[in-house]
Write a structure and sequence with these properties.
The structure is a homodimer.
Chain A (H helix, E strand, L loop, with lengths): L2 E5 L8 H13 L5 E6 L1 H8 L9 E5 L10 H7 L4 H10 L5 E4 L3 H12 L11 E4 L7 E4 L9 H18 L6 E5 L10 H15 L4 E6 L3 H4 L4 E3 L2 H12 L1 H18 L5 H14 L10 E3 L7 E4 L5 H16 L2 H10 L2
Parallel strand pairs in A: 1-2, 1-4, 2-3, 4-11, 6-9, 7-8, 7-9
Antiparallel strand pairs in A: 5-6, 10-11
């Protein structure tokens, strides 16, 4: 049976939401895996007391320290060895857990994962990706979304290779199409880094490591021309956060528009309500919680990174994602492919 | 009276739309300025023949060559000296025109503007910006959006300074707030280039050249936290094109949603039509044609760059933008401020 370590203290709504998410995951899956919940006893135990934990495959582990959103990633791991973050990753390192899940400080989790777990053989830099809705069926995956701000061409190529492996084994997409995000389609476009990345991606394509479709542009992301969009962490992080702000923006526009139409008598209250609810449903593809979180690709272990805003549903889905990563042996496949290079 | 040179051959719908736009601008403004329309006589003259050009303050100038979307920017200017693009810019250089307007190959227009007109004193690299809608009143301006893919810190600072001057004199915003686009708010975030740009922007702020509010992130763009968003051309170009694709994406989601609601009987045809039209109105802030185009900031002359998709209305508005740039003496102000450095 798999054992998944969960950071009780990570996320804007922790530990309440994390406790709820863990309980839901175990109930819904009929205790399919074991969960070790790690956090401050004085905060977590009273929350656990509200549930029938005796029926759950759940262990609690006390960790006195907490890594907060204000902690500096690079120093948090050394300064807070007794935090739920570091303890959880150490359980993975010691093979006492198969995966670790947190919705806390993303930068700190990445730094700690790298420090405690190390890299898979052949990996230059681990990376983190994000999902994006698209017009076509399926999802667009953008990599990197903030783990690596300055990237060399070979980093970009490895991001594509690792995400291709995840898509292939984790999502069942045999040949996910990879596009290089650039200012134009021609291979002569962009910075020297992008031109060189283009050449290396073509090489990787000829070796069957990626399915490279060439340069793509900003307007291709939502259209879904590529399943994997490769860019540096500054571009990816900006696009990700920009995308996340669209529902709020569209919602604000709708509110204004509905008010104007109500005042002018073009619509009645019922139509306004119907339109509002239709909108909410419509923007559901932007729901980042469906998957909960993403694996930090390239580290020698499974560390699932969640959004700070994570609800209990997101936490639950992150636990399932952790299980999925173990079962599909994604890391073994990454090590095999990248070690060849 | 001002003289504005217009490239008849630039844009996806040229020369038809350009001729229409020029005629509209002159009619609407009661011949407030003179227009020199430049293009291939065999294509443009028959279109002009459909209008009462005798009543318009319009001159036609033949240029046998055309710079197409496929021409490589760096070589087009030398290879096609007899194009409407190069001829139009040469009219500006020779002071026979006060401004030049085109909706053609943007890269070629920028290269040709730089080559023919040169830079204003003190300008390291000219730049191009774009408008963005926002929740708050007004517009967000992103700079650079593709003219400069690799940027040094001092380039980013100058982009902010030039756009601040444009906002101040051209748009009447005395102290437009400038944000540096980054992966986090803290000044320690991002690449070395961004950290150094942060320091230089603080210096520029202390000299009153910009009103720097610090780092901003992708989700701040539509919220409108900053009037000026500074980034390199790869990030800006990607965000711009991504943003332009939102209406189509939202439209596709709406179409699906309306169909489902119609099938399930939750709405009737009338409500569906009303909702559709409400949507179109709602997404009007994404209408890029309202302003037509933007000035290429930092060149020693006025070169207005338009979207390839430009309609006659966009062309008309670009002509007004050219007039505005001359009248507000934006270039003189840029030269004054940047020459100090």
């Amino acid at each position: 049976m798999l054992t998944i370590a969960v950071d009780a203290m990570g996320g804007d709504h922790a530990p309440e939401c994390v406790v709820e998410g863990v309980v839901k995951a175990l109930q819904e899956s009929s205790n399919r895996f074991e969960i070790i919940l790690i956090g401050q006893a004085e905060k977590v135990e009273p929350l656990l007391a509200a549930h029938d934990t005796a029926s759950l495959n759940l262990r609690f582990m006390h960790a006195p320290e907490v890594v907060t959103m204000d902690d500096i990633p690079a120093t948090a791991v050394k300064a807070k060895q007794d935090s739920s973050l570091v303890r959880g990753l150490q359980l993975c390192k010691a093979k006492q857990a198969d995966a670790f899940v947190s919705a806390g400080n993303t930068g700190a989790q990445m730094a700690a994962s790298l420090f405690v777990l190390g890299r898979l053989p052949g990996v230059l830099r681990p990376t983190i990706y994000a999902y994006f809705p698209r017009i076509q069926e399926g999802l667009t995956n953008i990599v990197d979304v903030g783990a690596n701000v300055d990237c060399k061409p070979e980093n970009l190529v490895q991001f594509a290779e690792m995400l291709t492996i995840y898509q292939r084994y984790g999502a069942g997409i045999e040949k996910p199409m990879t596009g290089l995000l650039n200012i134009g389609e021609e291979e002569t476009k962009g910075s020297e880094t992008l031109k060189q990345a283009y050449r290396l991606l073509k090489e990787a394509d000829s070796k069957g490591k990626v399915n490279f479709i060439g340069n793509i542009e900003g307007h291709d992301i939502l259209k879904g021309h590529a399943t994997i969009v490769v860019c540096d962490g500054l571009v990816g992080n900006t696009i990700l956060k920009f995308g996340e702000s669209i529902p709020e923006f569209i919602g604000a526009l709708l509110k204004q528009s509905l008010e104007q139409h109500l005042v002018s008598g073009q619509i009645d209250q019922n139509t306004a309500k119907l339109t509002s609810s239709m909108f909410k449903g419509m923007l559901e593809p932007f729901d980042v919680e469906k998957f909960g979180g993403v694996p930090f690709l390239g580290v020698d272990g499974i560390s699932i990174v969640g959004h700070g805003r994570s609800s209990s549903r997101a936490i639950k889905n992150m636990i399932y994602m952790a299980e999925h990563m173990v079962e599909k042996k994604v890391n073994q496949h990454i090590a095999e492919v990248l070690a060849e290079e």
